[in-house]
Amino acid sequence: MSGTETGACEDVAALHRRIVKLERINAALMSQVERTMDQRGSAYSLFQTAITLEGQVRSRTEELTALMRSLERSNQDLTAAKEEAERANRSKTRFLAAASHDLLQPLNAARLSISALAEMRMGPEARVVVGQVERGLQTIEDLIKTLLDISKLDAGLIQPVVRPVRVADVLESIEASFGPLAARKGLRLSVRGGRTWVASDLVLLQRILQNLVSNAIRYTAAGGVLVAARKRGPEIRIDVVDSGSGIPEDEQDLIFEEFHRGGRESVDGEIALGLGLSIVRRSAQALGHHLSLESRVGHGSRFSLHLDPCAPEPPRPTPSLVPPTSLTGARIALIENDKAALEALARLFHGWDANAFAARDHLSLVRLLGTTWSPDVVVADFHLDGGACGLDTVEWLRSVHGHDIPAVITTADHSSEVEARVRAARCELVHKPLKPAQLRALLAHLLSRG
Predict the structure, then answer these.
(1) What is the pLDDT of residues 25-50, one digit of tens each?
(2) Sequence ranges of the chain with CATH classification 3.30.565.10
(3) What is the spatial distance between Cα 418 and Cα 423, in angstroms, rounded to a whole number?
(4) Which of 101, 239, 354, 430 could form a disulfide with 349 if both were Cys (CB 3.0 to 4.6 A apart)?
């Protein structure tokens, strides 16, 4: 081979090597480009995913914010509705209190007039009519007072005073109050137990049991009513059991609603207001006492009040009781702004052989009595015309005559403020409508004590 051919072969080999090298370089460059493209594609995908997630997060955040604002508005609406309901409840209570006062005034006059009429000579038929009118007036009074009590309980105005209560005292009161009523209907009223003390409010506890026993007697035609206090485990249970008509299961919750009488009929024709059990439930709730009911149609019912026992209250000295005396010749100063009530009271006092000096306002009573005639006792209405108060008249009479003349303050206002003022003035408080027998006994007691 010539030198020229040898050189040509070398050039071809070198060129081949260069081509191979260039192919390797090209393959490496292509691989790098592909990797770069793949990386750029992944970054783009991530970028797209991030944008999508950000949009979803923003959307969810906006939804959550909207829900939070809606919930906040709902809470504000609920708060406003609650405040409005509380205002309406307080307004209802004030209205009922004012209406009750205005309704009890003429009712008081009517009851006093009927009582004065009952003491006059009349035939049997007239006495029957008088009795019917008295029962009707009593029903109206019970309805007004019960509605007012329900309103006060709902508004939280009645605050229980929980203290040790001797169960025997409550049961003895129940037996004394309802024994004659049960006997007239031919029923047995049995009272058992009571040798224990419970933590309760005496007034509310008596009201609960009075309503339960009254209902039991009303809806029992034959047999009897049992009131029993028993120790059951860690608690004291007071049962009111009757042999009456029983309560259907589907009505056992409804009977505690206002004005619900169900299908039961009173066996003696008495008007059932449908409020007694409503008072029972509200009073038990206010006291924190559990109330349960078991009843079978045709067999009777058992209402159970569950109470916590407590240690006995330290004994207090028993006050000596002075037997009441006659009102004959007693000098009674009477001030009452309601004309009908004033006239009815004056007739009652004269019927009791007392000397009544009656006036509708302070100045009229001053002119009537002068400064030398001293009354033995004063009966004064709390609220007089023109914003005057009967306590001012009592204070004036005491200052003029130099001693604490016994005084009875009458009012249809059941507020604690009135009661506190009357007690502070060392006077007796009697709520309207007045019960003549109760008023007569109180006056006789005050006169005998004086």
Answers:
(1) 666 666 665 665 555 555 556 666 76
(2) 164-307
(3) 9
(4) 354
Residue-wise pLDDT for 340-373, tens only, equals 888 888 888 988 888 888 889 888 888 887 766 7
- From 279, 328, 344, select the one nearest 109 (Cα to Cα): 344
What are the b/e assignments for 329-366, b being 16+ CB within 10 Å?
ebbbbbbbbbeebbbbbbbbbebbebebbbbbebeebe
Q: Give the pair of three-digit tokens for residue 285.
A: 């709730």
List, in order, residues 6 or more apart from 296 with CB less than 8 Å away.
246
Residues of the chain with CATH 3.40.50.2300: 331-449
For 76, the token pair is 């504000």
CA-CA-CA-CA dihedral for 235, 241, 247, 252, to nearest 10: -20
Q: What is the CATH number of domain 331-449?
A: 3.40.50.2300
Q: How far is CA 381 from the centre of its chain?
A: 28
CB 108 within 8 A of CB 435: no
Question: For 101-125, how does the pLDDT look when each residue is reduced to its tens digit (9 = 90+)?
Answer: 566 667 777 777 777 777 777 777 7
Q: Domain 164-307 class?
A: alpha beta
- Give me the CATH topology for the region 42-158: Helix Hairpins (1.10.287)
Range(s) of the chain covered by CATH 1.10.287.130: 42-158
Q: What is the pLDDT of residue 322?
A: 41
- Of 128-132, 239-243, 248-252, 313-317, the range with the lowest mean pLDDT is 313-317
- Non-local CB neighbours of 353 within 8 Å, separated by 6+ positions: 326, 327, 328, 329
DSSP 302-369: EEEEEE-B-PPPPP-PPPPPPPP---TT-EEEEE-S-HHHHHHHHHHHHHTT-EEEEESSHHHHHHHH
> Does pLDDT of 425 surpass 90?
yes
- Residues, the chain: 450
Q: Is 248 helix (H, G, I), strand (E, B) or coil?
A: coil
Q: Is this model's pTM higher than 0.85 or not?
A: no
Residue 80 CB partners (closer than 8 Å, separation 6+): none
Determine the residue type at 159.
Q
Return the structure tokens found at 204: 């509310």
Residues 6+ apart with CB under 8 A from 145: 100
Write the pLDDT tens digit of every residue in 43-69: 556 666 767 777 777 777 777 787 778
Picking from 101, 141, 102, 132, the residue whose alpha carbon sits closest to that of residue 114 is: 132
Residue 321 confidence (pLDDT) above 50: no
